[in-house]
Amino acid sequence: MKAIAFLFGTILAVVGCSSVDPHLVPTPAVLKDPRVDFASRIPEALRTPSQPVFFATTRAPAAEGHYGDADGGGVMLGVATVRLGEPGMSWDQLVASHRNSSVDRPRSGAVEAIEELGRASRMGNVEEAERRFIAAIDSQIERSRNRELIIYVHGYRVAFDEVAVQMASFSHYLGQGAALTFQWPTGAMFWNYLTDCPRAESYIPDIERLLVLAGRTKADYINVMAYSCGSPLLAAAVARLRQRDPLLGHDELQRKYRLGSVIFAASDVDLKTFARDYVAPALDVSQQVVIYFSQVDRALGFSTLVAGASRLGRPDLTVLSVEDLQRMDNPRLVAVDVTQVRGAHEMGGMKGHGYWYANEVISSDVSLSLRYPIPPARRCLENQPRGSRVWRIPEGYVDCVTTRLLEAFPELRSKPALAPP
Length: 421
Description:
Elements: H1 2-15, H2 29-32, E1 50-61, E2 67-84, H3 91-98, E3 109-119, H4 128-143, E4 149-153, H5 160-173, E5 178-183, H6 193-199, H7 204-214, E6 222-227, H8 231-243, H9 250-257, E7 259-265, H10 271-285, E8 286-293, H11 298-307, H12 322-327, E9 333-337, H13 355-358, H14 360-371, E10 382-383, E11 390-392, H15 397-408
Parallel strand pairs: 1-5, 4-5, 4-6, 6-7, 7-8, 8-9, 9-11
Antiparallel strand pairs: 1-2, 2-3, 10-11
């Protein structure tokens, strides 16, 4: 315990308690390739720096930042209007800024307006608030060529506005489709980890009901993602979703819920628990389960020490039994080892923990998983060791995946510049 207390104190001294201003995530590398003009597939009516992000939040309203770190006594459904870039920036200026974006020069964003659509039913009924929420999501889907819905469950120590701007930028990169965040209350201090993450387990039924509600939208399919200690919340919610229909098989569950990729990034969930309780139901209801992990994730190294158990996002497979390994031996379970990927692995926060949005190569693969449930080999990943469920992002990945993207969508190819008269 003394060692843990010393480590905890050391981390507190390093991390501090400063808040993070809302900012766009760096542009994924595949979209910075000069051969790609991703904006060409965005309808003219959506070519604006203003991006809607739908939300279901259990946070209470706050004087600053719209929603704070206290429990709101239920789930509020609504939509945030997010500005991408500096005030007054035009669409063309925003798109031009993508080429030079980097983790060292974050671009600002802001939540400029909030529209609350009403409290969600505690019983999961479709009432007036739910109908308005579904209609708003469907309206965005119908306006976009991206007919998928992405749902994100965040980790701890983040503000409402920060998460909204982060996911607005991802939604923008994915073609101005529909993005939905489940936002639970968490404080701004490092030590909130010890209280906020365990308390957040009470919101698992709310996430389950949100997944059911998402299935009522017109989305072709729904890709869901959780980060850090948001991962056990999503994993448990998906397991509960499976339990609703014990007699249905995979194909029937696909038709009912339309879940594409279920993604776990830098996940602070017990590895044994995931293998024994969460893998099978997640595979039953989805097209694929994608796990991103890193062996240099210091936050999960600390979590492993505190919990005394291996974490999914920094796994020690020797703790798994033969039966556990057999449960995870499924071709639709994809584990992506990003330990050796060059570039930034954090954007503030603890070293090695934010790679999925900070690293432009890794975020390219995450974006593809969020956009389409594409198998790993078709995403240019390499199977190492061969025959395992572990994949790596190789050198030359960006060129490979860009080439394949342009083969599938030739209209994304940049037009040659006209010669001056």
